[in-house]
Amino acid sequence: GTGTRVNGGGLNIIFSDTNTHYRGAENYRRSGEVDPMRIPKDGYYAHRVMWNGWVDPETPAAHILGHWNYLEGVVKDVFVVANTDSVELLLNGRSLGTGTVSHHFLHAFRDVRWEPGRIEAVGRDAADREVCRASHETAGPPQALRLTRIGPDRELRADGADLLLVQVEVVDNEGRRCPTALDLVNFELEGPAEWRGGIAQGEDNYILATSLPVECGVNRVLVRSTTQAGSIRIAAAADGLEGDALALESRSVEVRDGLSTAFPDDGLAGSLDRGPTPAGNSVVPVRSAIPVRGAESSGGNPYLAFDDNEATAWTGAGPIVFHLERSAELHEITMKVGGFRARSYPIRVRVGEREVYTGATRRSLGYITLPLVPATGDRVEIELLAGSEAREAFGEITELVDQGNATTGEENVGTRELSLVEIELYEPVHSPEGDETR
Questions:
Q1: Which residues pair with 120 in a beta bridge?
Q2: Could you tell me where the beta strands, DSSP code E, fall in 267-412?
Q3: Burial, 133: exposed, middle or buried (Cβ in 10 Å; 0-12, 13-18, 19+)?
Q4: Which of 11, 71, 145, 242 has the highest Cβ tally under 10 A?
Q5: What burial class does residue 196 get, using C-beta atoms within 10 Å of its C-beta: 0-12 exposed, 13-18 middle, 19+ buried?
């Protein structure tokens, strides 16, 4: 179900890139908010903007997707993820206006001509006051490599299992990362440690290699301790760039009867800074579902389209009509259609006698929301205008355990039939002043 019938919140199944569920050999590059070496991607920063509260965002924040290193003459769209009411874009201090908002968080600026310098996104509240700012700066030509230890600043334990994570970046003469750099970096390791390497795109993904490229100007490598203590040095070099080196000590670990007396989490401090879950409401309602009193159709059981059961669906060739419990100003419909990954249904939606939506439903991984021309009524008709097109939009998906999880119900839908697994109809929630809360 959707809306008021289920718990409101979010679930992030995979935080890091992985090939879990066997969803493609390159899936570990494309899923998750960080890559396999825990390097944050744009998805990480976008999620941080959208999920910085207990449920709804609490702190105004913005993130400009991508970088600001391009070639002369490039004209491109710029996208900003922000939880503010509006976003103004500045290029070298010059205003490019306010972005067009979609999906609540995405602010788009079309046909921006690149010029070197600084691009800034200024987030503003409903009173047009600046509440946050994000920026990118054009980096200069690659100048040097920079090595940085990632994680706790302590000696490595000589227990044969402790790991050192080191980040390598290509930077310009002011220390700014060069986001288009793809240089091949050659590493040297000295001392009592074992090279575990990193990962990069290639035939063997550079597994265990001592030479591997940066991607977007950055990469990371792992070194594992041995059971011998001593000085460890990691050096990095690349053609045409100044090299860098990192030195540290691994210390002996006390062993009694073959067991270490130190635990892996020793020295790692927990954080309870956020405190307990707030007692108040963490959600600002922006829409409310209107209960369906009944439904009718020329074929099939229309009740199955709103029965809170995703294992059932209404399927029919003729229109389906929903009768609401009361008249309401409808502005959105959320639905899950049969064959949602593969099927696109050309439909028409009427509220009373007024046409409020005409178009094809998009393929998805579940529920989709259709924006309606706002209209008031208690009768909603959905009609299939032509045959649906079946074409898998997300590639073959194989589930690990239950193959039944992979079905979308497409096998039960004829080419000139509409199938609704679940549907819900919404009116906007208004503030006491009469304006929408968001």
A1: 90, 135
A2: 287-289, 292-297, 314-316, 320-337, 343-344, 346-351, 354-360, 368-384, 389-390
A3: middle
A4: 145
A5: middle
Q: Cα 136 to the chain's mean position, in Å? A: 20
pTM score:
0.79
Token pair in block for residue 193? 């440690």
DSSP per-residue codes, 148-169: EEES--SPEETTTT-EEEEEEE
Mean pLDDT computed over every residue of the chain: 88
Cβ pair 427, 332 in contact under 8 A: no
Q: How far apart are the first and last CA of the chain?
A: 23
Burial class of residue 258 (count of CB atoms within 10 Å of its CB; 0-12, 13-18, 19+): exposed
Q: What is the helix (H) or strand (E) element at residue 78, kind and residue range? A: strand 75-82
> Could you tell me if 207 and 197 are in contact, meaning their C-beta atoms sit under 8 angstroms apart?
yes
Q: How high is the pLDDT of residue 14?
A: 66
Token pair of 192 as six digits = 């009592």
d(CA 78, CA 85): 18
pLDDT in tens, 184-204: 999 999 999 999 999 998 888
Lowest mean pLDDT: which of 85-94, 386-395, 426-435?
Answer: 386-395
